[in-house]
Amino acid sequence: MKANFSKKKMALAVSLGLVGAGFSNPALSAWNAGTMHNTPISAHILKISINENALDGAEKFVDAIADQGIGFLSDSNLSDQKRKSEFQKLLKNNFDMNTIARFALGRYWKTASQAQRDEYMKLFETMILNVYSSRFSEYKGEKLSVEGSRPEGKNDILVNSTVAPENGQQIKVDWRVRLKNGQYKIVDVIVEGVSMSLTQRSDFSSVIQRGGGDINVLLDHLRQQ
User: I want to staple 158 with a disulfide (CB 3.0 to 4.6 A). Which of 14, 36, 59, 152 is the partner?
Assistant: First the structure.
Protein backbone atom coordinates (compact mmCIF):
# COMPACT_ATOMS: atom_id res chain seq x y z
CA MET A 1 0.00 0.00 0.00
CA LYS A 2 2.76 2.43 0.90
CA ALA A 3 4.54 1.99 -2.45
CA ASN A 4 1.34 2.48 -4.45
CA PHE A 5 0.42 5.54 -2.41
CA SER A 6 3.85 7.05 -2.96
CA LYS A 7 3.63 6.46 -6.72
CA LYS A 8 0.23 8.14 -6.83
CA LYS A 9 1.53 11.17 -4.96
CA MET A 10 4.61 11.21 -7.15
CA ALA A 11 2.56 11.18 -10.33
CA LEU A 12 0.34 14.00 -9.10
CA ALA A 13 3.30 16.09 -7.96
CA VAL A 14 5.15 15.63 -11.23
CA SER A 15 2.03 16.32 -13.27
CA LEU A 16 1.58 19.53 -11.31
CA GLY A 17 5.15 20.72 -11.40
CA LEU A 18 7.06 19.38 -14.36
CA VAL A 19 5.48 21.61 -16.98
CA GLY A 20 7.03 24.84 -18.24
CA ALA A 21 9.55 26.55 -20.43
CA GLY A 22 13.30 26.04 -20.11
CA PHE A 23 15.18 28.57 -18.01
CA SER A 24 18.82 29.47 -18.56
CA ASN A 25 21.29 31.70 -16.78
CA PRO A 26 24.23 32.91 -18.92
CA ALA A 27 26.46 33.21 -15.87
CA LEU A 28 26.11 29.49 -15.22
CA SER A 29 27.99 28.49 -18.36
CA ALA A 30 31.17 30.18 -17.18
CA TRP A 31 30.77 28.75 -13.69
CA ASN A 32 30.10 25.22 -14.89
CA ALA A 33 32.93 25.27 -17.43
CA GLY A 34 35.38 26.75 -14.95
CA THR A 35 36.52 29.50 -17.30
CA MET A 36 37.54 31.96 -14.58
CA HIS A 37 41.14 31.58 -13.36
CA ASN A 38 42.04 34.73 -11.43
CA THR A 39 43.85 35.00 -8.10
CA PRO A 40 42.67 32.56 -5.40
CA ILE A 41 40.84 35.32 -3.48
CA SER A 42 38.94 36.76 -6.44
CA ALA A 43 38.20 33.27 -7.76
CA HIS A 44 36.83 32.30 -4.36
CA ILE A 45 34.57 35.35 -4.26
CA LEU A 46 33.40 34.76 -7.83
CA LYS A 47 32.66 31.10 -7.11
CA ILE A 48 30.50 32.02 -4.13
CA SER A 49 28.65 34.69 -6.10
CA ILE A 50 27.92 32.49 -9.11
CA ASN A 51 27.01 29.54 -6.91
CA GLU A 52 24.36 31.72 -5.26
CA ASN A 53 23.11 32.70 -8.72
CA ALA A 54 22.90 29.03 -9.67
CA LEU A 55 20.83 28.17 -6.61
CA ASP A 56 18.55 31.15 -7.15
CA GLY A 57 18.18 30.31 -10.83
CA ALA A 58 17.28 26.69 -10.07
CA GLU A 59 14.59 27.81 -7.65
CA LYS A 60 13.15 30.21 -10.23
CA PHE A 61 13.23 27.41 -12.81
CA VAL A 62 11.14 25.09 -10.64
CA ASP A 63 8.84 27.94 -9.63
CA ALA A 64 8.24 28.84 -13.28
CA ILE A 65 7.48 25.22 -14.12
CA ALA A 66 4.91 25.09 -11.33
CA ASP A 67 3.25 28.29 -12.54
CA GLN A 68 3.07 26.98 -16.09
CA GLY A 69 1.73 23.63 -14.96
CA ILE A 70 -0.96 25.10 -12.76
CA GLY A 71 -1.87 27.42 -15.61
CA PHE A 72 -2.89 24.73 -18.07
CA LEU A 73 -4.08 22.21 -15.49
CA SER A 74 -6.61 24.74 -14.24
CA ASP A 75 -7.66 25.98 -17.71
CA SER A 76 -11.12 24.49 -18.24
CA ASN A 77 -11.09 25.57 -21.89
CA LEU A 78 -8.36 23.08 -22.82
CA SER A 79 -9.24 19.58 -24.00
CA ASP A 80 -7.52 16.56 -22.49
CA GLN A 81 -5.65 16.00 -25.73
CA LYS A 82 -4.44 19.61 -25.80
CA ARG A 83 -3.17 19.33 -22.23
CA LYS A 84 -1.35 16.13 -23.10
CA SER A 85 0.16 17.70 -26.20
CA GLU A 86 1.39 20.73 -24.26
CA PHE A 87 2.74 18.51 -21.52
CA GLN A 88 4.67 16.42 -24.03
CA LYS A 89 6.25 19.48 -25.60
CA LEU A 90 7.15 21.10 -22.33
CA LEU A 91 8.27 17.85 -20.75
CA LYS A 92 10.99 17.52 -23.38
CA ASN A 93 12.16 21.07 -22.67
CA ASN A 94 12.62 20.49 -18.95
CA PHE A 95 13.46 16.82 -18.41
CA ASP A 96 16.85 15.39 -19.29
CA MET A 97 15.06 12.39 -20.75
CA ASN A 98 18.22 10.67 -22.00
CA THR A 99 19.81 10.74 -18.56
CA ILE A 100 16.63 9.58 -16.82
CA ALA A 101 15.95 6.78 -19.28
CA ARG A 102 19.51 5.44 -19.22
CA PHE A 103 19.59 5.51 -15.43
CA ALA A 104 16.26 3.66 -15.27
CA LEU A 105 17.61 0.85 -17.46
CA GLY A 106 20.68 0.51 -15.25
CA ARG A 107 23.29 -2.10 -16.14
CA TYR A 108 21.14 -3.43 -18.95
CA TRP A 109 21.89 -0.35 -21.04
CA LYS A 110 25.40 -1.67 -21.72
CA THR A 111 24.16 -5.03 -22.99
CA ALA A 112 21.30 -3.66 -25.10
CA SER A 113 21.77 -3.45 -28.86
CA GLN A 114 21.49 -0.08 -30.59
CA ALA A 115 18.09 -1.09 -31.97
CA GLN A 116 16.90 -2.02 -28.48
CA ARG A 117 18.21 1.25 -27.07
CA ASP A 118 16.46 3.30 -29.73
CA GLU A 119 13.13 1.57 -29.20
CA TYR A 120 13.51 1.73 -25.44
CA MET A 121 14.06 5.50 -25.50
CA LYS A 122 10.90 6.04 -27.54
CA LEU A 123 8.83 3.70 -25.39
CA PHE A 124 10.16 5.25 -22.19
CA GLU A 125 9.14 8.76 -23.23
CA THR A 126 5.69 7.53 -24.25
CA MET A 127 5.25 5.75 -20.93
CA ILE A 128 6.25 8.82 -18.91
CA LEU A 129 3.87 10.97 -20.92
CA ASN A 130 0.95 8.57 -20.49
CA VAL A 131 1.52 7.89 -16.79
CA TYR A 132 1.71 11.51 -15.69
CA SER A 133 -0.85 12.96 -18.08
CA SER A 134 -3.34 10.37 -16.82
CA ARG A 135 -3.23 12.17 -13.46
CA PHE A 136 -4.33 15.53 -14.84
CA SER A 137 -7.95 14.88 -13.88
CA GLU A 138 -6.90 14.50 -10.24
CA TYR A 139 -5.74 18.10 -10.03
CA LYS A 140 -7.92 19.86 -7.45
CA GLY A 141 -6.28 23.22 -7.05
CA GLU A 142 -3.04 22.12 -5.39
CA LYS A 143 -0.30 24.74 -5.11
CA LEU A 144 3.46 24.22 -5.22
CA SER A 145 5.74 26.38 -3.09
CA VAL A 146 9.52 26.48 -3.50
CA GLU A 147 11.19 26.62 -0.09
CA GLY A 148 14.92 26.61 -0.79
CA SER A 149 17.76 24.73 -2.44
CA ARG A 150 21.23 23.33 -1.88
CA PRO A 151 24.09 21.96 -3.99
CA GLU A 152 23.86 18.22 -4.60
CA GLY A 153 27.04 16.57 -5.81
CA LYS A 154 29.27 18.23 -8.39
CA ASN A 155 26.75 19.45 -10.97
CA ASP A 156 23.31 19.18 -9.38
CA ILE A 157 21.07 21.36 -7.26
CA LEU A 158 18.29 20.00 -5.06
CA VAL A 159 15.33 22.37 -4.99
CA ASN A 160 12.98 21.83 -2.05
CA SER A 161 9.25 22.41 -2.37
CA THR A 162 5.87 21.38 -1.01
CA VAL A 163 2.63 20.64 -2.82
CA ALA A 164 -0.31 21.82 -0.75
CA PRO A 165 -3.77 20.34 -1.41
CA GLU A 166 -6.72 22.57 -0.58
CA ASN A 167 -7.65 20.08 2.12
CA GLY A 168 -5.07 17.57 3.23
CA GLN A 169 -1.48 17.02 4.27
CA GLN A 170 1.33 18.77 2.43
CA ILE A 171 3.49 16.66 0.12
CA LYS A 172 7.25 17.21 0.23
CA VAL A 173 8.76 17.33 -3.26
CA ASP A 174 12.47 17.72 -4.04
CA TRP A 175 13.63 18.45 -7.59
CA ARG A 176 17.10 17.35 -8.67
CA VAL A 177 18.16 19.97 -11.20
CA ARG A 178 21.26 19.69 -13.37
CA LEU A 179 23.09 22.34 -15.38
CA LYS A 180 23.48 21.16 -18.97
CA ASN A 181 24.78 23.40 -21.74
CA GLY A 182 23.93 26.47 -19.68
CA GLN A 183 20.35 25.34 -19.05
CA TYR A 184 18.59 23.74 -16.14
CA LYS A 185 17.23 20.23 -16.65
CA ILE A 186 15.39 18.04 -14.16
CA VAL A 187 16.93 14.60 -13.71
CA ASP A 188 14.91 13.32 -10.76
CA VAL A 189 11.93 14.10 -8.56
CA ILE A 190 11.85 12.89 -4.96
CA VAL A 191 8.37 12.76 -3.41
CA GLU A 192 8.24 12.18 0.35
CA GLY A 193 11.73 10.69 0.14
CA VAL A 194 10.85 8.37 -2.77
CA SER A 195 12.98 8.91 -5.89
CA MET A 196 11.15 8.73 -9.21
CA SER A 197 14.33 7.54 -10.97
CA LEU A 198 15.20 4.87 -8.40
CA THR A 199 11.61 3.62 -8.30
CA GLN A 200 11.53 3.31 -12.09
CA ARG A 201 14.91 1.58 -12.13
CA SER A 202 13.75 -0.95 -9.55
CA ASP A 203 10.54 -1.63 -11.48
CA PHE A 204 12.37 -2.14 -14.78
CA SER A 205 14.98 -4.38 -13.19
CA SER A 206 12.23 -6.57 -11.72
CA VAL A 207 10.52 -6.92 -15.11
CA ILE A 208 13.78 -7.87 -16.84
CA GLN A 209 14.80 -10.32 -14.12
CA ARG A 210 11.41 -12.04 -14.23
CA GLY A 211 12.01 -12.42 -17.96
CA GLY A 212 15.32 -14.18 -17.42
CA GLY A 213 17.42 -11.08 -18.08
CA ASP A 214 15.95 -10.47 -21.53
CA ILE A 215 15.57 -6.75 -22.32
CA ASN A 216 12.93 -7.60 -24.92
CA VAL A 217 10.61 -8.56 -22.06
CA LEU A 218 10.81 -4.98 -20.79
CA LEU A 219 10.22 -3.62 -24.28
CA ASP A 220 7.09 -5.78 -24.58
CA HIS A 221 5.97 -4.50 -21.19
CA LEU A 222 6.47 -0.87 -22.23
CA ARG A 223 4.61 -1.39 -25.51
CA GLN A 224 1.54 -2.23 -23.47
CA GLN A 225 1.69 0.89 -21.32
Answer: 152
pLDDT in tens, 11-26: 555 555 443 322 222 2
Which of 163, 161, 180 has its CA nearest to residue 54?
Answer: 180
Can you give the C-alpha Rg of the chain in angstroms?
Answer: 19
Q: In what order do the strands lie in the sheet with 183-191?
A: 143-152, 156-164, 171-180, 183-191, 194-195
* pLDDT tens profile 28-87: 232 233 333 333 333 333 344 337 888 999 999 998 888 877 778 878 888 888 888 888
Beta-strand (E) ranges in the chain?
Answer: 143-152, 156-164, 171-180, 183-191, 194-195
pTM of the model: 0.76
Helix extents (H) in 74-113: 80-94, 97-105, 108-111
Q: Could you tell me which CATH number the domain at 2-223 has?
A: 3.10.450.710
Residue type, 111: T
Boundaries of every domain in the chain: 2-223
**Alpha helix positions (H), 134-214:** 196-210
CA–CA separation, 107 and 128 (whole Å): 20
Give the three-state DSSP class for 160.
strand
What does the alpha-carbon distance between residue 175 and residue 131 come to, in Å, rounded to a whole number? 19
CB-based contacts of 85, cutoff 8 Å, min separation 6: none
